[in-house]
Amino acid sequence: MDLSLGMQVDNWPPKHIRKEEEESEEDMEQDLELKEEEANQEEVEANREEDETS
Q1: Does 2 map to a domain?
Q2: What's the whole-number mean pLDDT along residues 18-36?
């Protein structure tokens, strides 16, 4: 029985792949934050326009 196989499983996925996954998760979080900020900005502008017309 080869115990080194267990060590290989612990090292999977390779570091460079893991790093890419972490970066893509960070990118998705940043995209979400940007979209939320844009939505908030549009809401503020819409509220401002409503205030001006009333």
Answers
A1: no
A2: 88
